Amino acid sequence: CCKLSTTILASSPAMASFNKRPRGEADGNSQAKRATDHFRGLSRSGYMHQRVHRRLHDKADQLGDRELGELGALTFNEQFSAIERMMPASTKQPRGNDSASPGNLFGGLSRDGYMQQRVHRKLHAQCSALSDKDLHELGQLSFNDQFPAIGQDGAHQKHASSSGFDGLSRDVWIQQRVHRKLHSSIALLSDQDLLELGRLSFNEQFSVLGHPGPNEAKQQTRGSQVFGDAGREGYLQQRVHRKLHAQAAALSDQELFELGQLKFNDQFPAMGLDGSDVKEHAPPMKQPRQSELFAEGGREAFIQQRVHRRLHPQASGLSDEDLFELGRLSFNEQFPYLGLAGPKEEQHQQLQHSHHLFGDVGRDGYLQQRVHRKLHGQAAGLSDQDLFELGKLSFNEQFPYLGLAGPQEEQQQLQQQRPHQLFGDVGREGYIHQRVHRRLHAQAAGLSDQDLFELGKLSFTEQFPFLGQAGPKEEQQQLQQQQ
User: Fold this and answer.
1) CA distances from 330 to 105, 234, 323, 334, 448 (A)
2) How many CB atoms lie within 10 A of CB 81?
3) Once rounded to an integer, what is the mean pLDDT over residues 50-62?
4) What's the distance, CA 473 to chain centroid?
5) 8 A C-beta contact, residue 70 and residue 86
6) DSSP for residue 340
7) Which of 58, 178, 288, 404 is the most buried (most CB within 10 A)?
8) How far, CA to CA in Å, does 228 sit from each of 221, 225, 232, 256?
9) pLDDT beyond 60 at 17
10) Mean pLDDT of 78-104
């Protein structure tokens, strides 16, 4: 019976198709399935970037799929010691006498750098008294284990409650304790890793996950904007003395920027030179006389003709040679030559300041949106700062801010002036008695000044229909009809 069953299965189409499948294809599918199981549905690279500390990526890349999966299941702190056990023997570095050096103990980091990354910040004071070996062993423990290891009970440290996150749910812990820019990167972290991540400062969280932090991004942005539209080379040409260009080329961006803020004369001592130390390749020239430099007009005429009028005080203190060099430049180039901001730079600074105050809408848009329309003429002459302060006030407060009467005050003044203008010396009451039919006095008393004035201009007969009432003639006609 067994032989018959085996024969039937072997001859079946499904079995024949299975036997025809290449062995390599079957093995490949099996290996891919096992790799997927190891990495929880992710690719090997994706799993390593999400679950393994970024400082261990080079070593982790040498592990097999199973070892890498096991490494990613550990916390970041546990991975450092675990990976040493998982590494193949052929790839481990021999441990000789050099292993005792701080550089090898701390993975190439300094002692302080290792302590900042691997030891809980509340234990830094106690760790300063530890030896390098003890500090290294402490850093191999998780943050929670470090407190009892160093003799602290950790009572001040809030341990995770039954929910795992100090009494909070996982989602609430993420919202409260993890920087919002990292939320998309921590979805696959284990609860323990997430707990430890949330106990770090926001800046430390970026470093642990291998992302540039807000401060680093800000510094990068600032570095690209140090020299403005001119760029580094343009800034060097405009703001640094030509004799110092070779030395300034080796400076960092920040150092070059600070050098360019100094006057030309101050730049030499800032670079450790006195001016005579810098030798130019050009052959020495005979010092020209003043008459040769400035022609017949002389020095004063040269300043008046060739130097921007706003620079005359500074130019008068220059030597003849420096003054001659200054006069050969365009007016715009003369300002940076003397270490001053030119008209274009001042305008650019004003525009930047204006944009900082008024945002994308600009000065005119801010004026239209935030200032009462009756004050636009006066506000146009204000400085940016005064206009900004004016726009922060309510419309009613803006009028006294500029020393003007507001709409409410004007209305009160008109109300005070209107009765005398409408009714003259007799006043409202006298006007009613003189100009309104006596039978309408009660209704007229409730009218506004303007309506009362219009009523008094009508004849007595016209006043009744004006107020929607029947006059004496109409009442007499109704009585006749009733009789």
Assistant:
1) 62, 16, 13, 6, 72
2) 13
3) 85
4) 82
5) yes
6) -
7) 178
8) 12, 5, 8, 13
9) no
10) 63
pLDDT exceeds 50 at position 454: yes
Using an 8 Å Cβ cutoff, are 341 and 366 in contact?
A: no
Please report the sign of the dihedral spanned by the C-alpha atoms of residue 277, residue 283, residue 286, residue 292. Answer: negative
Q: How confident is the model at residue 282 (pLDDT cuts 50, 70, 90)?
A: very low
pLDDT band at 352 (very low <50, low <70, confident <90, very high): low
Please answer whether residues 361 and 369 qualify as being in contact, where contact means their C-beta atoms are separated by less than 8 angstroms. yes
Whole-angstrom distance, CA of residue 48 vs CA of residue 61: 8
Place of tokens 């190439």: 108
- For the chain, the straight-line distance linking the first and the last C-alpha, in angstroms and rounded, comes to 133
Question: DSSP letter string over 421-464?
Answer: HHHGGGHHHHHHHHHS-GGGHHHHHTS-HHHHHHHHTS-HHHHH
What's the Cα-to-Cα distance from 334 to each of 240, 264, 309, rounded to whole Å? 13, 12, 11
At residue 417, the pLDDT reads: 60
Please report which helix (H) or strand (E) contains residue 204, including its range: helix 202-209
Phi, psi of 66 (to 5 degrees): -65, -45
pLDDT by residue (tens digit) across 167-180?
Answer: 888 888 898 889 88
CA distances from 32 to 41, 65, 205, 414 (A): 10, 10, 33, 90
Q: What are φ and ψ of residue 337, in 5° steps?
A: -60, -35
Predicted pLDDT at 452: 92
The one-letter code for the residue type at 79 is Q
Please give the Cα distance from 193 to 333 (Å, whole number): 58
Radius of gyration of the CA atoms of the chain, in A: 44
Q: What is the pLDDT confidence band of residue 371, given thresholds at 50, 70 and 90?
A: very high
Which pLDDT value is given to residue 80? Answer: 85
d(CA 83, CA 55): 11
At residue 168, φ and ψ (nearest 5 deg) are -105, 160
Rounded to whole angstroms, what are the CA distances from 369 to 103, 271, 361? 62, 51, 9
- Per the CB < 8 A criterion, the answer to whether 34 and 65 are in contact is yes
Q: Whole-structure pTM over 0.70, yes or no?
A: no
- Residues in the chain, overall count: 483
Q: Compute the average pLDDT of residues 355-362.
A: 80
Buried b (16+ CB within 10 A) or exposed e, 202-237: eebbbbbbeeebeeeeeeeeeeeeebeeeeeeebbe
- Average the pLDDT over 79-102 and give the result: 62
SS3 165: strand
